[in-house]
C-alpha cells in the first residue's frame, strides 16, 4: 500500500512538472516586440525594407547579411545604431514558415524596396518603452 501511494505521488509531481514546463514555453516563445506592427500576433518574421534585413519574432533575432553570409544577432548591427524601429516600416511575412526567410531576399528587396510604405503602421507598444532587447545595438 505504501508503494502504491509513493507511485501516485510521484506520478502527480511528474504531471505537474510537465504542465508547468509547457506553460512557460508557450508564454515566452513568439512574443512580438513592442516596436512590431500591431495586429499580428501569430507572425514569425518581419522584413525591414529600410535595413534590408529580417527579424525573427520567435528567436528574437535580427537576420542580416554581413561578411558574405547571413548572420543572426539579438542586436542591430553598429551601422544602424540610430535607426528608429518604431518609426521604420515592417513587412509582416505571413507566407513564409521556415528557418531562412532570406531565401527570398531578392524578391523581398525588389517588392519592398528601401523607403517602402504601405500606409500608416501602428506599433504594438509605445516609443520609449525599453522592454525589448531589439532596441539595443552592438558591434
Number of domains: 2
Overall shape: elongated
Radius of gyration: 20 Å
| Largest sheet report | 5 strands, antiparallel
Strand content: 15-25%
Q: What is the helix tally?
A: 2
In total, the number of strands is 5
Overall SS class: alpha+beta
Q: Strand order within the widest sheet?
A: 4-3-2-1-5
Average pLDDT, rounded to a whole number, is 83
**Which regions contain 5 or more consecutive residues with pLDDT less than 50?**
21-28, 131-139
Ends distance:
64 Å
Order of helices and strands: HEEEEEH
Helix content: 10-25%
List keywords for this structure.
139 residues, alpha+beta, five-stranded antiparallel sheet, disordered C terminus
What report would you give on this structure?
The chain has 139 residues and is of the alpha+beta class. The chain folds into 2 domains: 1-30; 45-135, no CATH class. 24% of the residues lie in helices and 15% in strands. It has 2 helices and 5 strands. The protein has helices at 2-28, 105-111, and strands at 45-48, 53-56, 61-66, 69-73, 91-92. The protein has a 5-stranded antiparallel beta sheet with strand order 4-3-2-1-5, with no helix packed on it. The longest helix is centred in the first third of the chain and has 27 residues, at 2-28. The N and C termini lie far apart (64 Å). The model is unreliable at 21-28 and 131-139 (pLDDT under 50).
Amino acid at each position: 500500500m505504501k508503494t502504491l501511494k509513493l507511485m501516485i505521488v510521484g506520478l502527480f509531481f511528474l504531471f505537474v512538472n510537465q504542465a508547468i514546463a509547457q506553460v512557460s514555453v508557450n508564454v515566452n516563445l513568439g512574443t512580438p516586440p513592442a516596436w512590431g506592427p500591431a495586429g499580428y500576433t501569430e507572425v514569425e518574421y518581419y522584413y525591414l525594407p529600410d535595413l534590408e534585413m529580417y527579424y525573427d519574432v520567435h528567436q528574437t533575432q535580427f537576420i542580416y547579411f554581413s561578411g558574405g553570409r547571413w548572420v543572426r544577432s539579438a542586436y542591430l548591427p553598429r551601422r544602424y545604431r540610430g535607426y528608429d524601429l518604431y518609426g521604420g516600416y515592417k513587412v509582416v511575412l505571413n507566407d513564409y514558415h521556415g528557418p531562412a526567410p532570406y531565401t527570398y531576399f531578392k524578391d523581398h528587396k525588389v517588392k519592398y524596396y528601401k523607403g517602402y510604405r504601405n500606409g500608416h503602421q501602428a506599433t504594438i507598444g509605445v516609443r520609449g518603452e525599453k522592454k525589448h532587447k531589439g532596441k539595443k545595438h552592438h558591434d
